[in-house]
Amino acid sequence: MRPTVLALTDRRDAHLPFVQRHLDDPIVVADPRTLLNGGELTYRPGSAGTVVIVDGQVLTDVAGVWFRKPLNVSPADLPVDQEVAPYSASAMREQYSQLLTEFPGAQWVSDYFAILRASNKLYQLSVADRIGLRTPPTIFTSEPKRAAEFIGAHRRVVSKPIGIVHPTVNGEKKVLFTTLLDEDRLPDLSNLHLAPSIFQVAPDVVRDLRVTVVGEKVFPADVTTSRSDGLSQVYDSRIGHYEGGMTITEAHDFPADLAGKCVRLLKELGLGFGAIDLLVDSAGEYWFLENNPNGQWAYVEQATGQPIGKAIADLLAGRP
């Protein structure tokens, strides 16, 4: 019997085909939202371990579990009276969450609880600094006076949101990007306690890199954005998805010692996958900004041809 690969994600996840094409058998997808249509998720605990059944398929010999982006069921989605909908949604979430501690012998990419821990930006910076990655001076604060002192003490500072929920303004969802602060763009800090933020010294940016790491394989890529306002320096490459344009090319000159530190960072964080953001300054120094433990990568493979999906498939299937 060939090993099974299980993906915990939305069935519409655009990343699935990039991995599936490198596997002999179909990926088994456990999508919490299929429960809405009567999809099965059954557990039978026993002395020999728990038997897990997904949509009628008994999962045996699971080699790898790929935790991607499962979408929780919300009370508003449920075809039940709204008085009982919160209970129903809670029961479905709890039923699905039992998967997160199953398959202890499988290769997780990555372990859910490791992802939670590694998503802590302060923890990331501490680990990165400890293993020798260069990190910019940074402050996480809710105190306006400390933020103002930090901004005043450095020539160039960026502000970064610490919240992960996008705000809605006048009915329109907004995305908060990393923003350069200067004399013409200083934030109103009076209500910082209601929206704590990250303030970080901004290197003199020459290049922006996205480094995707899968196990011990490293896929560095240069990201260049062109913005409609003519700004050339990059402070948040995501802006290229919304305005201007984005060009991604493989970074062939990526230093081997830096690649080794990126692999070590993931090992220290307990992850099998990471999407690391780095900057290069005018002196050629590399700066670590953050690691997204479950970041998007298909767009990088599409642009560069780097075999990221194959590396994930190999890791999940236990192939060398």
UniProtKB/TrEMBL annotation:
Name all ATP-grasp domain ranges.
264-317
The cross-references to InterPro entries, in alphabetical order and at most eight, read:
ATP-grasp (IPR011761)
Its domain of life reads Bacteria
PROSITE patterns reported in the protein's UniProt record: ATP_GRASP (PS50975)
Alphabetical UniProt keywords: ATP-binding, Nucleotide-binding
What is the protein's given name? ATP-grasp domain-containing protein
What is the originating organism of this protein?
Answer: Actinoallomurus acaciae
